[in-house]
Structures are given as C-alpha cells and as structure tokens.
Amino acid sequence: MTIEDQPFPDGTPDGFRDISLPAKYQGHPLLNGPPFFTLPEELIVKFVGHVGESRFDSELLKMEFELSRIHGEHCANVGFWGGCPITFELLRSSNSLAGDDVLQWMQECGYTEKEALETTELAGDRLSWTRNVRRGYCGWLMTNRTFLSEHDAIFSQWAGLMEQNGIPVMGAVVRDAQAIPGSELASAEMEPFIQAFQDFFIRWRLDSMPAPFTPVPMSVHLPVSDLRTMLGHMRDGGMSFYFPDIFPIPGRETIREMIEEALRDSQSPEHLLEWFSIVRSENRAKNEIVKYNRLFEVQHYLRAIYSRHGKALRRKKSSIKIALSEFLRVSEDTIERNLAIITKNLGKNWLSSLANDS
C-alpha cells in the first residue's frame, strides 16, 4: 500500500486518539448522508489485496485508510454520522478492561497489584459473558427481516427530527421535563417522536442506537442501580427480582429454574420466539450465540464496503470470502455458511441492493 500513516497531533497523550472527523472530509458527500461506517485497517488491506487495488477508486481508498486509522481497532468507535463519531462498543471483542492503564489506575486508588489483576479478571469474565450474548443478539436482529423493516420505517419517518436532535435514548434523562424552558412548545412535536423510539426499543429489547444499524441490546443489571432507566423494559422486556439479604441463596439449578420460568413464559412475544429458543437453558447449543456474533460482524462489514465500493466488488465474492475468513480467523467454509444464512434471511439480492455503482 502507498497510503501514508496518519500522525496524531503533537502532544496527544498515550492511549488517547482524536476521533473527530478531519476538516478536509467534512464536506465530502459520503460523510453528509447515511452513516459512514469505517472498516478496520487490517480488513481493508485484505479486501484490497484479494480483490485487486486497481479495481478501487484511489482517492476513496485513501480516505478509507485515513478514517479507519482514527478509530483504531474499532472496539469503541465505528464510523461517522452527521459529522460526529459513532460510539458503539459491540462490533468487535475487546479486552480493554484489563489494560495496563486500568491496572495502574486501580493501584493508584489503593489496590495491590494482585488485587487489581484479580478484580479486573473477574469483572472481565462477567462482562465477556453479557457482551457475547448482546453481540449475538445484534447478529440475530441484523439478519431479521421484521426488525430491519421496522428499523427502516422508523428511521425514515423521523429523519427530520433525528437530524436536529439525534436518536432518543431509553430512560429518564431529567427528573421533570416540564421544568425545562420551552418544553411546553416542544412537547407536541417531540413527544410522539420520543414515544415512537421508546416503543421500538421496548419491542426489540434495546437500550439505545447511536446510529442506524447499531442496536444496543439491554444488558444484565445486577444490581439495578436506578429503576427509572428500567421502567419501560420492566413491563415488557424482562423481569425484576428482589432478593432480601436475610435469605440464603438457593442452589444453582433452583435459581436458574426460577428465573427461566419468570422470564420466558407461555406469553412470550412471537417476534422474539426464535431468539428465545436459542437462549433457553435447555438449549445446550450455545455456540449459536457465537455464530450470531460473527454474523453481526460479517453483515456489518459487507454493508459498509458494498455501499461504497460495489462496482469494484462485482464478481469478486470469492475474494471477499477469503478476506473475511482471514480477518475473522475462521475457515472459508464458515464464512460461506454465514453468507448462506444471511442470504436466506435477507434475500439473494441483499448485497446488490447495497452497492453504490456511481
């Protein structure tokens, strides 16, 4: 590659990045419309290497590399929308919790080196489990026609207000919205906008979406620190448990059965039944969740690259499969099976519909 490295500004502290959109690209048409999802640099290199650099637009490819480097490994930021970075931490696995900077900070707070390491390892194990399930659920959502149809409809209907105000988030932001100056004037327009997204999030068990195509599923709250942020989901998207501290904790299987019975009864919503069948306790094939983790990444990367380089990728599906398999460290057969699932769920023309051949 002839793309030059992009230096960080002088004085940038170690471990910090300037994730803002460079001024020279702020007027670029691709960065003033739908979200521009950047791709990890390693993946771009593999795509270009297997497809052939000559097939790509050189200026667009240069921009791809420059914007990719801003977001590093893509474990925290994944692109730009409306001139702002898209912060989304579920696209790729991350081990950042146990990083040297965290361990050093904990020791400065009074932990011994051993205590800091043990604490971060335990927290990492807990977070890794919930993160794995949430990423798998993202993969299931993003290969679900019903979800995508409702997703496209709500983002289309409220495009104007989103451009001005961003995407609403679940939960109470302030204690008394009526106390905000001018709120009585805005409520008539904003209330249905906010309610529409709250209903959408509750229906699909989401906490938020920083941008289109980036669902943030609910996470486990043990304990729940603020009931106000959970009230909507407690009615439809989960179950609250209160365990007095005077009780002994039941055996593992007893408490598992109690939670399972409360969470997934005969009234489970039809649109989530497929996912519920995956996560039920009696389903021992939990590798399905891992599969949906990978499906989430595969469809995300393909959406991004086909939307900008569709013409360069014509009749290059074999090369694309090789690039993805090398980047994700799985076999080409695995990628082939993943693509077959996505095609079955979204239709055989889903990739060609993304391609921007202009």
Provide keyphrases for this structure.
358 residues, mainly alpha, 2 domains, three-stranded antiparallel sheet, two-stranded antiparallel ribbon, 13 helices, globular, disordered N terminus
Question: Can you describe what's shown?
Answer:
The chain folds into 2 domains: 19-141 and 284-358, no CATH class; 158-250, no CATH class. It contains 13 helices and 5 strands. It has helices at residues 41-51, 58-70, 100-108, 113-141, 145-157, 159-165, 183-203, 231-236, 252-263, 273-279, 287-309, 317-328, 332-346, and strands at 36-37, 77-81, 84-87, 206-208, 216-217. A 3-stranded antiparallel sheet has the order 1-2-3, with no helix packed on it. Strands 4-5 form a two-stranded antiparallel ribbon. It starts with 35 loop residues before the first strand and ends in a 12-residue tail after the last helix. Residues 1-15 and 172-183 have low confidence and may be disordered.
Q: Write down the overall geometry.
A: globular
Question: How large is the count of helical segments?
Answer: 13
Number of domains: 2
Mean pLDDT: 81
The percent of residues in helical segments reads 40-55%
The structure class reads mainly alpha
H-E string:
EHHEEHHHHHEEHHHHHH
Strand arrangement across the biggest beta sheet: 1-2-3
Contiguous low-pLDDT stretches (5 residues minimum) are 1-15, 172-183
Could you describe the largest sheet, including whether it forms a barrel? 3 strands, antiparallel
